[in-house]
Amino acid sequence: MSSAVLDFTIPNLGEAKIPSPILMSHSSGDGMADYVLDSTRILFNVATKAGSDGHSVPVDDGTLELAGPRERIYFNPAHVHAAITTCGGICPGLNNVIRAVVRCFWYRYGVRRISGIPYGYQGLLEESSFPIIPLDPDIVDDIQEKGGTILGSSRGGGDQISEIVDSLERMNVNILVAVGGDGTLRGAWDIGEEIKKRGLKISVIGVPKTIDNDLSFIQSSFGFDTAVAQAVPVVRGAHIEARNSINGIGLVKVMGRESGFIAANTSLAQSDVNFCLIPENPFDLEGENGFLVHLKKRILDRGHAVILLAEGAGQNLLPPTAERDASGNVKFQDIGIFLKDRIQAYFKKERIEVNIKYIDPSYIIRSAPADSFDSIYCARLGAHAVHAAMAGKTQALISQWNNKYVHIPIKVAVSRRNHIDLEGTLWRDVLENTRQPYSMAN
Amino acid sequence: MSSAVLDFTIPNLGEAKIPSPILMSHSSGDGMADYVLDSTRILFNVATKAGSDGHSVPVDDGTLELAGPRERIYFNPAHVHAAITTCGGICPGLNNVIRAVVRCFWYRYGVRRISGIPYGYQGLLEESSFPIIPLDPDIVDDIQEKGGTILGSSRGGGDQISEIVDSLERMNVNILVAVGGDGTLRGAWDIGEEIKKRGLKISVIGVPKTIDNDLSFIQSSFGFDTAVAQAVPVVRGAHIEARNSINGIGLVKVMGRESGFIAANTSLAQSDVNFCLIPENPFDLEGENGFLVHLKKRILDRGHAVILLAEGAGQNLLPPTAERDASGNVKFQDIGIFLKDRIQAYFKKERIEVNIKYIDPSYIIRSAPADSFDSIYCARLGAHAVHAAMAGKTQALISQWNNKYVHIPIKVAVSRRNHIDLEGTLWRDVLENTRQPYSMAN
Amino acid sequence: MSSAVLDFTIPNLGEAKIPSPILMSHSSGDGMADYVLDSTRILFNVATKAGSDGHSVPVDDGTLELAGPRERIYFNPAHVHAAITTCGGICPGLNNVIRAVVRCFWYRYGVRRISGIPYGYQGLLEESSFPIIPLDPDIVDDIQEKGGTILGSSRGGGDQISEIVDSLERMNVNILVAVGGDGTLRGAWDIGEEIKKRGLKISVIGVPKTIDNDLSFIQSSFGFDTAVAQAVPVVRGAHIEARNSINGIGLVKVMGRESGFIAANTSLAQSDVNFCLIPENPFDLEGENGFLVHLKKRILDRGHAVILLAEGAGQNLLPPTAERDASGNVKFQDIGIFLKDRIQAYFKKERIEVNIKYIDPSYIIRSAPADSFDSIYCARLGAHAVHAAMAGKTQALISQWNNKYVHIPIKVAVSRRNHIDLEGTLWRDVLENTRQPYSMAN
Amino acid sequence: MSSAVLDFTIPNLGEAKIPSPILMSHSSGDGMADYVLDSTRILFNVATKAGSDGHSVPVDDGTLELAGPRERIYFNPAHVHAAITTCGGICPGLNNVIRAVVRCFWYRYGVRRISGIPYGYQGLLEESSFPIIPLDPDIVDDIQEKGGTILGSSRGGGDQISEIVDSLERMNVNILVAVGGDGTLRGAWDIGEEIKKRGLKISVIGVPKTIDNDLSFIQSSFGFDTAVAQAVPVVRGAHIEARNSINGIGLVKVMGRESGFIAANTSLAQSDVNFCLIPENPFDLEGENGFLVHLKKRILDRGHAVILLAEGAGQNLLPPTAERDASGNVKFQDIGIFLKDRIQAYFKKERIEVNIKYIDPSYIIRSAPADSFDSIYCARLGAHAVHAAMAGKTQALISQWNNKYVHIPIKVAVSRRNHIDLEGTLWRDVLENTRQPYSMAN
């Protein structure tokens, strides 16, 4: 994945001198967990070649700082005003993260001023009419059983950095936990830069949110497991629809603007998928090796087909649009409807009766509550964000890497997208399962 | 519901003289169930007025023949070739019905020739290339755990009566169980008429299938309970989406071409619905009492709204289309997309930011496996269909009425649709729950 | 079911003179639901014999008063202090009923004093230390998504009638809605009698709760559908366990102290059950026609078996216990463990290896949230309880009969239990599905 | 976890000379996945200390061989007779593994002789009366939708090594895939040793199965995610039961004989747990710091408590038993029933009314079908087992480590158990969530 050693150094606000109120140990063997040291690090890259002696010759791609509670913290809990905000589209697990953040601040550090910022960064803009939401363990008690975010969410606002920092100053916020995707994290970095410029002591910690799993430097993003779990019965339904009508075709579109992880993993979990179409693997419709010919072959052979489509797939086939959403993301045409129409036209021309059913379950998937996997994950992400902030770390995000919770500098994290490696094992195993051609481009 | 006494007499093929192979009793008190008598009947109408003496003064709207195993049957099981076919769109419970029919023929009557007709009536047409599927208990062992129908389904073919009866004759089929909706049942009646005209001894029994619950003379159709159960989490998701964005509007379209039962019941089950729009209750968009004004009021008051829409609602607002599907049903424009566009345009004009999310879960709902309620129901419907056929009943369908399984002459059953009574208790309770105006027409 | 005409007359507190605040209509055809008249009644018995002319000759078993909002009510909403309590074991749907009661009082009648009585009748005892819970629509907003009851529940207290009525007087409660089973309803009747004796104007309305479905005069009790739905995957798991080990036996115990409805319906919904054992159908273990011989036959034939057991089944086999629970119900020995031990001993003696897995999912089942069927049902039961109380009805319970919501005098309702009729169609269809002998008694 | 460098060298049957029938690439950049090289290895240990220059100073704990398809294979697919067997208790995902193994052999390598060995190693014993099950893609098509294993499973047989190898010889099996736990894998190693001794060319590949997640050298075992997901609603139900009765106590026992991973993870996923009791953390019942005092404190403070118990917890409290199961595992007394009785006795003595509900959902959990996470995992484990076997690897198991699929020598894999590290981050986070004392031993 990496070609040069990246700088994984975590910025911090100053020396952490205050003893942590959390009772832990310094030494192993006493049956009590130890404080985490800043010097404990995790290798970024685990792949290596066996040397002649069979021992490891690791490629040095740098190391990551281990997350967790420190023995000394930077902020006096009695002086902390913590804020948390959730940005962008909703995603399973947001409420779990909010809950974990609030509970860790409250129970572990004794912080009593915790504010929920409504509707993402917009809630920090001057003209915002939405009231700040005071948070405590009672308010967040059961929220994880619901999908979405009790704070509400929105795109946009993330470019009005100066105004946001004004608000933080005015509210005496000294910790900001921002939960969001690529755009949100860029905003968080810029907010951190503005804070530094003004000489303020405000920690900005990101919790990476992307249902598409398209952020690098995080082994899997929260909500992703739930998204796949939600997509599976939809694909099963599409398969039922396809098998139960004459030359039935089930076409399902799932999320994945730039990366096809949901589609790929769903294809592995529910092996009824015959064609998995993802942004990373452009394809042609027409021509000898085009998708339509392969689809026709499948229909003639087996009488039904299931197509699973990431929303960003096949963009090469669509005329570009000039529209952008509030976060600045390019708005795509709906490839699902486009493909459905093209398939129908093609088989009409070929004089083959087909019955095509198009399903777009996106909002159903993203509004689901977190499953147990994501519940555990979010509980731990949220707590680690609090530990990082209290220790005076800033402009960092909490990530899981090689199954360890680590800190990643936000700047590094947003420097590249996570894509499916067409030569990697995930895609290899998807092709093995779907038995589709490895390329459908002419 | 009724204004004149209907003729509920069930046609039959002749006298049932053969002793049933099913061991049952004639007398109560011996701990063993009794054979059902043709003369046991169920009142159609249970509503009445108390007389001056407090006793019942029933309105005589006729009585229905009780379904169940008879002591004497018409067909010699050793001579029976039974066929079953499933027509129209898929619906939860189809496989359960198939399974129950096969098991009852096989285990209870000892019938060994049972054929599955593929893809509905089309599978009986001369040019059909789909092979007949021999059925036995092993083949149907686990099929109820899957949605859809192992026989496949299609619309159409139901008007080629003569050809279908030719096929039945050629195949020596003497019992045909047809599972389907209004069109299928009309076809079944006509097949029965043609059989009578030719002097054949073929029993045609219908099992009514309508996920919309829009057939009269059946208290609730199979698959309907599952459909509502499937719609509930979708509406919950729409509510999450609506609450979590600024002036969020969740718009969900469910099945219901002519009757809004799924929408109405879902509104009772999941009380987040603010507007339940059904075909029976036309509404205006514009004007003082129009839907858009009421929606705006809700948005200004509460900041979010959930709209649940039956697909046949608001047809008065749409320009008619000339298209019909293969069953001859008028094709509607998609009211969901139409409404979404109109809402967006309206709020844009009003300069109010709204975030609207449109969800169409139809295929997800109808491809689900039957829930336990429908599993029980279908198991019993299927068995009763077999009992009716073996007793020589014909041109009848199996229905549940006042919680009893009964026979209904198909001709009566297709004589009117089941609609939500706007003055009845169901709609009254929906309005109570949604607190929407009882009329949004000007 | 009935042998003599029962008196279904509903007691009331006096003439209802106050116009209802609910806007409804008097006449059909205006598109608005009508007020319900006391004189509108529902036939109790729908079974009949065809006369020589084919018309109905109904057996007059009496008629039931239709439930619903009346045009004139007895209580001035401004003067109402309503109380609600939930008694006995928990059951899916309790929170739905509470919610519906609160919302109907609040939104439909404008009642603003609604009190939740904690832990059933115990919360009304003098020495109760549990605070009364004030209820409004905000408090009950989402409670239906959780199992159990926000009011808590307990057995007992129901015999301290005088003390309870003292409390109601002291609190100025004029409406008491009691949700509970047989014992609770007897208590409610007695409370009503005491109120009458004291000349008070307090309405006592019961909402019948029995997960076992063992109350007569209610076609199916709330929570029952959910219980069956929850039991189905447990039986499926038992079947998996049984099939996957050598001579595997899955033994599942479900609720049903006196009536085996959950076991019977689950056997219809999940046809893997080979032996359905219910209280109504005593069986022997030993002997030629005993259960163990039949089980051995099944094991030798097929190599696995699934047994579904109602907790009250086989009580004839157990030595009686003298213990009673707080509601006064006889405590049974655990037939599940008893049967498991006897099966193991028997096969050991027969030198046949068996692998038996015993599953008791009771608490998992009864703590589940209501499914959509029960959600709808509870929403409507709760609203009808409020309509009855506001109209001045008392000592009545809300029931569904022949698919209509009706009032039943509590005294009649508790006069007999609901049992599975061994000669009826439900048990007939269970035997057909399990293919077990209709009797396993010698 | 490790203190000395382990020998991770994988045994093999000889040089792999036959070109693989799988079309892959040798070079990156061509859009096609590459064959995996034996020399590509994964670091075992990723934790490190930052050197003075911030760079990694990895602790060399050895490296693991990457799994995946090789360019040259050892067996000629046309000569392969592959066998697969599943041993021990059932676990979610077994059918998924079987299916993946069969499909990979069949579709990727063209192997046509694949045999299912019934009931684990017992199916290979001389006296076994269970027929071998021929497997192909049709037979395994839908099996993953069901829990359990279509091959059946049993303990025992794993010590009759010589007899098993005799059977493999007689059947001309040259690949044996054994899916099972610690005992099964020890058996597989011994089978491999006997094969070596006899100079046979039979590859034995293990797929590690432990629902308890108690195998070392595998980051998480298949079925474990599903087990936690299944346990969560049970704990939610216990919480409902506890909250809804006076001083309610919900006591849930989950699997975990030697390691408490299911209990710990469930406590993180469902934060209603107040006491998580695991084998790794012995506790006292009595005494000042004993469990009962802490439970009493919780009950007096909050009126309810939820206890989640691994089945192996508190064994120090129980008198030992001499019994062992067929796999040779010590049979424990049921700590759940023991604890329930002790809690009741304690509160009776303390004269505090408590209502305790004990739930043991083990068979429900382990018979569930795999969730999407485990479905993906098993699909990939199974395929990798086939790739390993075809390449001539033997006495190895397929594991996931640092998110990569790797080969582990079985001998190393069974050399130690996986336990929760009481000083590690998992247990730290559990304590943070439950807020129970880190020790309840005096």
TrEMBL record, chains A, B, C, D:
Cross-referenced SUPFAM superfamilies: Phosphofructokinase (SSF53784)
Gene3D superfamilies (UniProt xref): 3.40.50.450
One Gene Ontology term, aspect cellular component: cytoplasm
Keywords: ATP-binding, Cytoplasm, Glycolysis, Kinase, Magnesium, Metal-binding, Nucleotide-binding, Transferase
Family annotation (InterPro entries): ATP_PFK, PFKA, Phosphofructokinase_dom, PKF_sf, PyroP-dep_PFK_TP0108
UniProt: substrate binding residues: 210-212, 255-257, 311, 363-366
Record has DNA-binding as a keyword: no
Annotated EC: 2.7.1.11
Signal peptide residues on this chain, from the entry's feature table: none
Cofactor(s) the protein needs: Mg(2+)
Domain annotation Phosphofructokinase: ranges: 82-388
Binding sites annotated in the UniProt record for ATP: 89, 155-156, 181-184
Reactions accelerated catalytically: beta-D-fructose 6-phosphate + ATP = beta-D-fructose 1,6-bisphosphate + ADP + H(+); beta-D-fructose 6-phosphate + diphosphate = beta-D-fructose 1,6-bisphosphate + phosphate + H(+)
UniProt-annotated binding residues for Mg(2+): 182
Entry annotation: catalytic residues: 212
Important for substrate specificity (site feature) positions: 183
GO terms, biological process: fructose 6-phosphate metabolic process
EC class of the enzyme, as a word: transferase
Alphabetized HAMAP family for the sequence: Phosphofructokinase_II_X
Purpose of the protein: Catalyzes the phosphorylation of D-fructose 6-phosphate to fructose 1,6-bisphosphate by ATP, the first committing step of glycolysis.
Family (UniProt): Belongs to the phosphofructokinase type A (PFKA) family. PPi-dependent PFK group II subfamily. Atypical ATP-dependent clade 'X' sub-subfamily.
Assembly description: Homodimer.
Name by which UniProt lists this protein: ATP-dependent 6-phosphofructokinase
Organism (species): Parasphaerochaeta coccoides (strain ATCC BAA-1237 / DSM 17374 / SPN1)
Lineage of the organism: Bacteria, Pseudomonadati, Spirochaetota, Spirochaetia, Spirochaetales
